[in-house]
């Protein structure tokens, strides 16, 4: 998958740079206060158009499960938004697109998913509130073949290259191919560094990585699980799939996404492009499963219908973590 790897890196890097341009040009101090999501909309469309264009150039027959369709960009009503997206996309693609080419590129992400053959899954901007706050967000792309994640690439524009130097250089790309290890590189360099989850023998010395938004996962249940595991370190809280990247390189050790209601189903791009995250974690020495210790099933379309929640930890401590999760969650 050397060609797929190179193409995916190129696509995610360019899409990440488009998102940075959107933040620099369209996000103001009033944006978060007013809960104005229009910059997110521009970034979503722009990133999806960039990735889909680059994938189509190399793999025209590969279907893509994306997040957006071009409906709101059509006609006079969509002209202003369409022009914003088009001008941004054309700053990073090799051949400038016209209006119709832009709409076609976005709509290539309309595949519904399935268990056979190749498909790419794309989350053009994961962590919308993190994006608006100027904190953590991510562009995630994965290649799934016959229901099995083979390749994941995650672009994290605001993630520090070194967690110990939070004010230092930012912008990291994470790459994993099944069976080939997990790697990190800077946006500013092509040099790749192999990464691993922190090798710990007991959950008691671990630290959690949690969502900033409490609506995404139950912080109360996580605190109970931490108590059972005798974890005393405060959680590392950040938005988006950057959490997977933080775990993969050893910044934290456990990630829990606990169901907030019984009928909730994860969108496939929400927890996989977290496919990108899943293959990264596995290649870095970790295990990923749901609260019942079942592998995540990405072959059932656009939602993870057969899974509840997501648990991530180093393989050495995973069984202890899942036991604690089940003691807390399954008693409800």
What's this model, at a glance?
The chain is an alpha+beta fold and 332 residues long.
Could you characterize what this model shows?
This protein is α+β, with helices and mostly antiparallel strands and 332 residues long. It has two domains: 194 residues, Fructose-1,6-Bisphosphatase, subunit A, domain 1 (Fructose-1,6-Bisphosphatase, Chain A, domain 1); 127 residues, 3-Layer(aba) Sandwich (D-Maltodextrin-Binding Protein, domain 2), CATH 3.40.190.80. The protein contains eleven helices and twelve strands. A hairpin with a 6-residue loop joins strand 6 and strand 7. The longest helix has 25 residues. The model has no long low-confidence stretch (mean pLDDT 89).
Overall geometry comes to: globular
Question: What is the CATH homologous superfamily assignment of the largest domain?
Answer: Fructose-1,6-Bisphosphatase, subunit A, domain 1
Q: What percent of residues adopt helix (DSSP H or I)?
A: 25-40%
Largest sheet: 7 strands, mixed
- Give unreliable regions as ranges: none
CATH class of the largest domain, anyone?
Alpha Beta
| Widest sheet, order of strands | 1-2-3-4-5-6-7
Distance between the termini: 44 Å
Structural class: alpha+beta
CATH architectural label of the largest domain:
2-Layer Sandwich
- In CATH, the topology of the largest domain is named Fructose-1,6-Bisphosphatase, Chain A, domain 1
The Cα radius of gyration reads 19 Å
The total tally of domains equals 2
Strand content: 15-25%
Per DSSP, the total helix count is 11
**How many runs of DSSP E, i.e. beta strands?**
12
Element string (H = helix, E = strand): HHHEHHEHEEEEEEHEHEHHEEH
Average of the residue pLDDT scores: 89
């Amino acid at each position: 998958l050397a060609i797929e790897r190179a193409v995916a890196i190129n696509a995610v890097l360019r899409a990440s740079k488009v998102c940075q341009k959107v933040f620099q040009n369209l996000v103001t101090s009033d944006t978060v206060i007013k809960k104005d999501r229009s910059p997110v909309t521009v970034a979503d469309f722009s990133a999806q158009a960039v990735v889909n264009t680059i994938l189509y150039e190399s793999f025209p027959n590969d279907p893509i499960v994306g997040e957006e369709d071009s409906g709101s960009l059509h006609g006079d009503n969509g002209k202003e938004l369409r022009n914003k997206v088009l001008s941004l996309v054309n700053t990073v693609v090799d051949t400038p697109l016209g209006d119709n080419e832009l709409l076609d590129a976005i709509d290539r992400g309309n595949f519904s998913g399935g268990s056979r053959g190749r498909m790419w899954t794309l989350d053009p901007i994961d962590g919308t509130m993190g994006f608006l706050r100027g904190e953590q967000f991510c562009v995630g792309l994965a290649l799934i073949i016959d229901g099995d994640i083979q390749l994941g690439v995650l672009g994290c524009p605001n993630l520090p290259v070194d967690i110990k130097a939070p004010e230092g250089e930012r912008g990291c790309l994470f790459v994993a191919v099944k069976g080939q290890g997990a790697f990190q590189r800077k946006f500013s360099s092509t040099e790749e560094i192999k990464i691993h989850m922190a090798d710990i023998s007991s959950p008691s010395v671990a630290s959690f990585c949690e969502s900033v938004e409490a609506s995404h996962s139950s912080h109360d249940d996580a605190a109970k699980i931490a108590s059972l595991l005798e974890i005393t370190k405060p959680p590392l809280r950040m938005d988006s799939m950057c959490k997977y990247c933080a775990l993969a390189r050893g910044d934290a050790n456990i990630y829990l996404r606990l169901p907030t209601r019984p009928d909730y189903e994860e969108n496939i791009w929400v927890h996989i492009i977290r496919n990108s995250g899943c293959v990264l974690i596995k290649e870095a020495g970790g295990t990923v499963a749901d609260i019942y210790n079942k592998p995540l099933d990405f072959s059932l379309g656009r939602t993870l219908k057969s899974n509840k929640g997501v648990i991530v930890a180093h393989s050495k401590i995973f069984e202890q973590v899942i036991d604690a999760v089940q003691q807390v969650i399954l008693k409800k």
